[in-house]
Amino acid sequence: MKFFVDTADITEIKELQATGLLDGVTTNPSLIMKANRPMKEVVAEICAVVDGPVSAEVTATETDAMIREGKILAEIADNVCIKVPLTLDGLKACKALTGEGFLVNVTLCFSAVQALLAAKAGATFISPFIGRLDDINLDGMALIADIRRIYDNYGFDTEILAASVRTMNHVREAALIGADVATVPPATLKGLVKHPLTDKGLDAFLADWKKTGQTIA
Ligand code: E4P
């Protein structure tokens, strides 16, 4: 499973890039707002730090304008992935942009049939939002499983990018189902390494080691 980080915070991205665990980045207009920086500038900086796909979202709602914006974003760097919303206009833009060889992430997916349409439109990534479905008492993980099955049934290459990930369990379950990627907020991504028994075990080993009076030299 690939890990993308869901943020436009360059400090967090640099820190995670140094771990070697990062395969890409996703941003959206809300995350750009939080970063409080010009979008093109921040996307350029992220693309220079991370080798993998960096999703940058169009804000137009009509196909031709989405294509125009998408191409402007793609000029920032070779690893920009144009993010379009899952609307009919977005799917048309997706078809046109992937047809020209651009990477496209179709976002705001909340149903399996939406994901089927995105794959038919040639999407590079489909982003089903787990957490936002869970928020309204629907089953975000069931959506990931449905999409996995549909894509496998028909041999679609579109990668399932589990989005709106909130917990360690979301990552675990999405990995068990076979999502290709999880995009995870920085704090949740860093939290994946933690286990209380790891900390407890390490404390005990270090305490015993100290008692031996030895050093490794
Ligand atoms: C995905 O690309 C989105 O940016 C993101 O995962 C949305 O997550 P949220 O529901 O926590 O805002």
TrEMBL record:
Documented EC number(s): 2.2.1.2
Lineage of source species: Bacteria, Pseudomonadati, Pseudomonadota, Alphaproteobacteria, Hyphomicrobiales
Cross-referenced InterPro entries: Aldolase_TIM, TAL/FSA, Transaldolase_3B, Transaldolase_3B/F6P_aldolase, Transaldolase_AS, TSA/FSA_arc/bac
Residues at the active site: 83
GO CC annotations on file: cytoplasm
Family per record: Belongs to the transaldolase family. Type 3B subfamily.
Transferase listed as a keyword: yes
Physiological role: Transaldolase is important for the balance of metabolites in the pentose-phosphate pathway.
Protein name (database record): Probable transaldolase
Keywords, comma-separated and alphabetical: Cytoplasm, Pentose shunt, Schiff base, Transferase
Organism: Aurantimonas marianensis
A GO term for molecular function: aldehyde-lyase activity
One BP term from GO: ketone catabolic process
Localization per record: Cytoplasm
Pathway annotation: Carbohydrate degradation; pentose phosphate pathway; D-glyceraldehyde 3-phosphate and beta-D-fructose 6-phosphate from D-ribose 5-phosphate and D-xylulose 5-phosphate (non-oxidative stage): step 2/3
SUPFAM superfamilies: Aldolase
Reactions listed under catalytic activity: D-sedoheptulose 7-phosphate + D-glyceraldehyde 3-phosphate = D-erythrose 4-phosphate + beta-D-fructose 6-phosphate
